[in-house]
Amino acid sequence: MPELLLELLSEEIPARMQARAAEDLKRLVCDGLKDAGLSFDHAESYVTPRRLALVVDGIPEKLAAKSEEIRGPRADAPEKAVAGFKGALPEGTIIVKRETDKGEFFFALVEQKGKKTEYVLKDILGSTLNRFPWPKSMKWAECDLPWVRPLHNALAIFQGKVIPFSIALKSRDGKRAWGESENNLYDWENPLTANNKTRGHRFLSPQSFKVKDFSDYKAKLEKAHVILDPAERRARIEAEAGKLAKAAKLTLMDDPALLAEVAGLVEWPVALMGSIDKAFMDLPDEVLTTSMRHHQKYFALTDAKGKLAPKFIVVANTEASDRGKAIVAGNERVLKARLSDAKFFWDQDRKETLESRAGALKDRVFHAKLGSVHDKVRRVEKLAGAVAEYCGADANEAKRAARLAKADLSTGMVAEFPELQGVMGRYYALNDGEAPEVAAAIAEHYSPQGPGDACPSAPVSIAVALADKIDTLVGFWAIDEKPTGSKDPFALRRAALGVIRLIVENGLRMGLITVIKNAHALLEDPIDKGAMRVSRGPKTVTENGSSFQLTETYKIISADVVGDTLLSFFADRLKVQMREKGVRHDLIEAVFALGGEDDLVRLLARVEALTVFLESDDGADLLTAYKRAANIVAIEEKKDKQSYDGEADPKLFAQGEETALHASLGAAMEASSVALEGEDFTAVMAELAKLRAPVDAFFDEVTVNCDDPRLRENRLRLLSQIRATLGNVADFSRIEG
């Protein structure tokens, strides 16, 4: 079967956009093929710094012929209408009369020949370029087509033949170069009309060459010093860097993200080893690795003891005649300049204590409506002291760590290397003689920042990290700056997930509503406690012997509203996080729906017990019975326009199954309430399991909607008690299945 090969050659594509671009190219072309009715066997996309490529195998040479039936006018329609219908059809079209449920009509049987695939591909490929979703794009020269970087060439081959679709350039009279007819494919002279040529490495093999298919294309690219497959480039970089490290008796530090990024910067990777001036080796390891990794894209190495070695690996995009000596020397000079700056900041920053730098945070705006970073630190300090008891932390240490947590933002090192905020705070705190627990909390209070980030486990670190994130969430909720849709400019979803991980992974027993209200109280004006904040000028406030100015204040949403909406937000984030671990989101929702549950550890314990229960035969059958009972009661309540909540009257029971069910429900309600109070959720589920037999017997033997209205109402109340008893454990109406 024929093969489609497409390549788009451009200036360098940013590494961070490459993987998504390759997927988008495959998706758009494959969707276009499907929409056009063209099948295919396999599609694969590739990307290098300068090119996007796609190969699609197994496309048919032409579209299948189609038969279409067109209904015309009625058989007794005027002759002019019939003649008009026949005249609009292709010559030789078969026309028949056919009886329908609306009478007799003319029908035309139109045979459509299969169109050649090459003509369909021309439209698909042109449309793909025009709709390509680059995160950022540009226009250049006379080109109307937005693209990530200026395009140099387009290669498009199908079954060995060029598909000459045109890039959307302007012609001399301002018209676009689109719309060539099927019989006149080559009538437009355009320097960016697709062809069968490409180019190799920009410096090592810049000449253009022709290709005939994907196999030929990939082989010739490799001869021209281009490795097309990103996975192959990553493997080569890792192998070459590992070989250099082994020869020097060192170990390459594992860094998959950097490896992927570097593979997106080179088409022909060549690993080289450079040296770090020993004068810089007394800098903190994080400073050295940040300078190398974030700024220079170098790989770090460690010695046999796991200590950072005075060597690095740089990956060049060319083969140098001097075996890379000049490249290494140039990179060593650049690194030396960066590390010289870092050493200067390291030496200067340690001349002042972290505490002395905290005052400078007054000049840093956290948010226009939430004050300065200094204001935030004051709130976090108080909140950290309050949550310390839940974390098993020393309240004074938690408050001290919170007071110093943001102070390193005022240091020269963090100004130069923003990635090191928190990390440098730890080093400077230790240099100042702060307790190790305080220093560790400063470094860890931003964590966890993502699903792959380690979660703090030290009590003081947990307290400060929680306080920082909860203050941020409550603050933005109070000024109504919640995430909307895909927009989350203040990373509040990440903050909420961080709070959840800190609580769940450390087994913290804390009521979120109480902590949220405490955080909300700290937002209020200390001079005008409890009042709605209104815009006013700055004022001087004295606290603990020191004076400071309050920033302009604004209206904030009440604590109750913030608590309710923020707890719902936590519930949504918890469902997302737990779903990845295989926990059913509907069970989390069923427990949250009871209201008043803000202890996440207790909630998840209840969800776990509920999961085990519903996986058993008793649980599955009881859920079915619950839904049956709830549906019957809901239907009858709607029909009768009254509620059947409340106790059934035992005096009206006419059958033993009613009496047995009533007794079982009462016993289950009492026993499960006691077990819930003691948080013995396994016992709760065991009590519910006892209901299966009496509930089944009731539905087998008792007619609910009987002729006697008093019996019917009493039986509906009994069914309502099933709903109430199970609803004491979870809202079963929200459970799927």
CATH topology of the largest domain: Hypothetical protein af1432
- Low-confidence sequence ranges: 170-190, 526-537
Helical run tally: 25
**Biggest sheet character:** 5 strands, antiparallel
**Helix share, percent:** 40-55%
**Strand count:** 18
Main β-sheet, spatial strand arrangement:
2-3-1-7-8
Termini gap: 46 Å
Class derived from helix and strand content: alpha+beta
CATH top-level class of the largest domain: Mainly Alpha
What is the overall pLDDT average? 88
Q: Measured on Cα atoms, how large is the radius of gyration?
A: 36 Å
- Percent strand equals 5-15%
How many structural domains? 5
What is the global morphology?
Answer: flat
CATH 2nd-level architecture of the largest domain: Orthogonal Bundle
Q: What are the key terms here?
A:
5-stranded antiparallel beta sheet, 737 residues, 18 strands, 4-stranded antiparallel beta sheet, alpha+beta, 5 domains, flat
Written description of the protein model:
With 737 residues, this protein is α+β, with helices and mostly antiparallel strands. It folds into 5 domains: 3-62 and 116-223; 66-112, no CATH class; 230-349, no CATH class; 354-582, Orthogonal Bundle (Hypothetical protein af1432), CATH 1.10.3210; 589-734, Orthogonal Bundle (Isoleucyl-tRNA Synthetase, Domain 1), CATH 1.10.730.10. It is 47% helix and 13% strand. It contains 25 helices and 18 strands. Strands 2-3-1-7-8 form a 5-stranded antiparallel beta sheet, covered by helices on one side. The longest helix has 25 residues, at 325-349. It is flat. The two termini are 46 Å apart.
